[in-house]
Amino acid sequence: xxxxxxxxxxxxxxxxxxxxxxxxxxxxxxxxxxxxxxxxxxxxxxxxxxxxxxxxxxxxxxxxxxxxxxxxxxxxxxxxxxxxxxxxxxxxxxxxxxxxxxxxxxxxxxxxxxxxxxxxxxxxxxxxxxxxxxxxxxxxxxxxxxxxxxxxxxxxxxxxxxxxxxxxxxxxxxxxxxxxxxxxxxxxxxxxxxxxxxxxxxxxxxxxxxxxxxxxxxxxxxxxxxxxxxxxxxxxxxxxxxxxxxxxxxxxxxxxxxxxxxxxxxxxxxxxxxxxxxxxxxxxxxxxxxxxxxxxxxxxxxxxxxxxxxxxxxxxxxxxxxxxxxxxxxxxxxxxxxxxxxxxxxxxxxxxxxxxxxxxxxxxxxxxxxxxxxxxxxxxxxxxxxxxxxxxxxxxxxxx
Length: 400
Hints:
The protein has three helices and 22 strands.
């Protein structure tokens, strides 16, 4: 018979031994890195320096000084916006990365070696000229054109740098106001702002990066933009078709007709076993659609909770759909993903999340899409479990 007490005792001894070893070596390493008493004098400066230009900066390679108490190498330089920035690397590393520049003018970085006694070497000036930054490329690629009830903004971010985009529109008094703010590192991006009448209006975008650089307002080349006319499809004319493969949307007293009734205080809710939940809609006649707005079921603060995260929209390509809902009759037009503004974990929400959920999530239809009458919505991912709720789906387009 195995003596479990002996096994526990052996495991305990092993764990205590391992912990003691870790503490010993950690303390030994810490002792080698603490500030020493006394000084070896001013450390030698880095040598054999080579600056390799990169987009918005440079990689500075050097030979590490041989000073016995070297702690780090530090670089000091000035950003394009005039702010001073410092970066450092430990004595194990023979290079530094200079970032945050948005021009292609000659720059200078000063390198210093620093000892554990915090003594600083003489400065070594290193000239370099950065390559064009991702920030500059994005600004040059920015396009702003008319869209349904607003304007469409598009840009190319080939270096996939995370940037902030403040999309603005003039109010009725001509004052520029933020219409939407987003962060993106996608290589090709297009986004629209809506809700404006079909009269000339100023639209612009301000781009910012993590180093504090800002583009200032970028206006379209054509000047003021006149949004295209857009209207909301009358919810009374939209019918749920109830194909045999669709969800019933009646869990927890929900109803499928609530999904398009124009009332965000009602909802339809699917059951987990109805995965993936689908609903099929008859718009009543063909429309050139501009966008759809999905409203979550915002019970108190339960948003991005048991709600849709990703869904697909299909159009019928065979005239009128068959009652069995055969997917071969449907062509996918777009995939839509709800983005939680705060990025907080599941089950947590900020005031920004609540505000965004109540405003609804806008998704633009492809601008080259043919007019459509029959649509199918298919949920593919959720913020919680597989039984999800939707308060409303609002459709917009060219209303004749």
